[in-house]
Structures are given as structure tokens and as C-alpha cells.
Design goal:
Keywords: Signal. InterPro entries: DUF4352, Immunoprotect_excell_Ig-like. This is DUF4352 domain-containing protein. It is a single chain. Helix content is 18%, strand content 38%. A hairpin with a 7-residue loop joins strand 10 and strand 11. The strands form 2 sheets. A 9-stranded mixed beta sheet has the order 1-11-10-6-7-9-4-3-2, with no helix packed on it. It has a two-stranded antiparallel sheet with strand order 5-8. It is α+β, with helices and mostly antiparallel strands.
Length: 194
């Protein structure tokens, strides 16, 4: 009797593992900006040529739609500006020797049905042209106010602020990424900065 229970448990575990593997599509990187609906409305037409003129990858000023784990959790994320190098707003908080600050201003608009509550800097990182990635750091820069560390947005609300990164002085920062749920959601937005 106990042997049958152990076999049944092993079969159930194997089926469960296969089911999880089959359902898990893995993480994806989103780098195609949203269609510019306002520009299409102004022109009064929506032709295939106009769609082909859209940039191939997102850049500064473009908006990407990202989703979180929770049902109805969705943001339109825009990289608004980049400050490279960024100057510290605090004389006591400077980059380490041989490093510099880079600031990226993000706008987050809650386009989902669920409230958004997270620390956006946890899900942001930059990468240089060599592929080295750098997480956000604490710091205020003269370019403007930092993104709130505990941002809460009801559906339809937006948040705007700078996220700061500390990178080697010689690094050529090439891309910035943002992922919901403190970096753990399946979809990651990526923007070219150069």
C-alpha cells in the first residue's frame, strides 16, 4: 500500500514538473515601442508604410507596455531623458573613484486594472556596449527629483522620476532595462540609449 502511494506521489510530481515546464514560456525582452496613435490620428491615415517607418527598437522618448505577475497589472513605461554623466545633488554622495553617475528619467503610467505598488529602481539596470550590466544605486542628481522608492499608482495614475546608476568612468552605456515586480516579472522593457 505504501509503495503505491509513493509511486502515485512520484508520478504526480513528474506530471506537475512537466506541466510547469510546458506552461513556462520564460522571460521576454520587449523593445518594440507602442504605435504612435496621436501621429496616425493627425495624419488621418494608417498605411503599411507608416507602420514600417516606426523604429525597430525603443529609444529615449518611446513607450513600452509591460505586465506584472498579478492579473490586471500593466504599465506603459517611457524613458523620458538621460543624464550622462549625472551630477550628484548631494556633496556627500559622490560616485566611487573611477566611476560616474548616469541618470535615467522614467515615466510609469498604470494602464492596468490592478493598483501598482513597487520600488521601480529594483527593476532597472543599464548595460554598456560590452554587455556589462549595472543595477540602480541610491543617489539624488541635479537633473531632477528621484523616482519614489515606494511608488503606488492606482489605475490611470502616473509616476515620474530619475533612477541613478553608478558605472565605470570609461563605460559606454548602451541600453537601459526595466522590469515590473522588482525585476521578477516575465517581460522586460529595453531601450537603446545611443
Amino acid at each position: 500500500m505504501h509503495a503505491r502511494i509513493r509511486i502515485a506521489a512520484a508520478v504526480a510530481a513528474a506530471v506537475g514538473a512537466l506541466t510547469l515546464t510546458a506552461c513556462d514560456t520564460g522571460s521576454t525582452v520587449v523593445d518594440k515601442p507602442k504605435d504612435n496613435a496621436a501621429a496616425q490620428a493627425d495624419s488621418g491615415k494608417n498605411t503599411a508604410k507608416e507602420k514600417s517607418d516606426a523604429p525597430e527598437v525603443a529609444k529615449v522618448g518611446d513607450t513600452l507596455t509591460l505586465e506584472g505577475f498579478e492579473e490586471g497589472s500593466k504599465l506603459d513605461v517611457t524613458v523620458v531623458k538621460v543624464a550622462d554623466p549625472a551630477k550628484s545633488a548631494d556633496e556627500f554622495m559622490e560616485p566611487a573613484s573611477g566611476k560616474r553617475f548616469v541618470g535615467v528619467q522614467f515615466q510609469l503610467v498604470n494602464t492596468g486594472k490592478a493598483a501598482y505598488s513597487d520600488s521601480p529602481s529594483n527593476g532597472a539596470q543599464v548595460a554598456d556596449s560590452e554587455g556589462q550590466q549595472f543595477d540602480a544605486t541610491f543617489g539624488d542628481i541635479t537633473a531632477g527629483p528621484s523616482m519614489a522608492s515606494g511608488l503606488k499608482l492606482k489605475p490611470g495614475a502616473k509616476g515620474l522620476g530619475w533612477i541613478v546608476f553608478e558605472v565605470p568612468e570609461a563605460a559606454k552605456v548602451d541600453t537601459v532595462q526595466f522590469t515590473m515586480d522588482s525585476g521578477f516579472a516575465d517581460k522586460t522593457g529595453e531601450w537603446k540609449l545611443r
